[in-house]
Amino acid sequence: MRTTRAIILWSFAAAGALLLAACTALTTTTVQAPGTSKASSLFAPSDAAKLRDSQVDPFDDNHPAISNLDPQLRAALQQAAAAAKQHGVKDFWVTSGWRSEDYQQELLDSAVAKYGSRAEAAKWVASPEDSSHVTGSAVDVGPTNAADWLSRKGQRFGLCQVYANELWHYELLTSPGGRCPAMRPSAAG
Ligand SMILES: [Zn+2]
């Protein structure tokens, strides 16, 4: 039983790696320089309210939080979500994906109000200039079960937890099956 599961798991990981490698090859020519946000030009102001959705289906390519993600990150996320489901993780949501600059500023303002200072808020919420959500290179995942699964298996898809204090925040920081860089204590350090 265990062996069968391991084989299934391994086959899936290998297929995922191949698929991601193929996607990487196809999208290499369209990779943007960091900080150039082509994504925001696709964003209709009427979609602003949707960015507050906290249980977005990772496969909903029509949702601005998903459609504006870096295509390679989105592919890895969707492979991981499919694998998680196969491994018994019932719910797998994007609690926050791509964010507009305005929405990021709003989040920062509420964090400053909540934590009482900009320095303390910076441990949890980046500025619009620094946020990897604004450039489409980060996703927050929930609920806790899904985030926990991703913290253990994400690197098979190149997805890495970035901050020790944010179990939910993932970025594409390695190749599929590669090693994730050491976590930073928080967004502030
Ligand atoms: Zn995040």
Automatic annotation (TrEMBL):
<keyword id="KW-0732">Signal</keyword>
<dbReference type="InterPro" id="IPR003709">
    <property type="entry name" value="VanY-like_core_dom"/>
</dbReference>
<dbReference type="InterPro" id="IPR052179">
    <property type="entry name" value="DD-CPase-like"/>
</dbReference>
<feature type="signal peptide">
    <location>
        <begin position="1"/>
        <end position="33"/>
    </location>
</feature>
<dbReference type="GO" id="GO:0004180">
    <property type="term" value="F:carboxypeptidase activity"/>
</dbReference>
<keyword id="KW-0121">Carboxypeptidase</keyword>
<dbReference type="InterPro" id="IPR009045">
    <property type="entry name" value="Zn_M74/Hedgehog-like"/>
</dbReference>
<feature type="domain" description="D-alanyl-D-alanine carboxypeptidase-like core">
    <location>
        <begin position="68"/>
        <end position="160"/>
    </location>
</feature>
<keyword id="KW-0378">Hydrolase</keyword>
<protein>
    <submittedName>
        <fullName>D-alanyl-D-alanine carboxypeptidase</fullName>
    </submittedName>
</protein>
<dbReference type="Pfam" id="PF02557">
    <property type="entry name" value="VanY"/>
</dbReference>
<dbReference type="GO" id="GO:0006508">
    <property type="term" value="P:proteolysis"/>
</dbReference>
<keyword id="KW-0645">Protease</keyword>
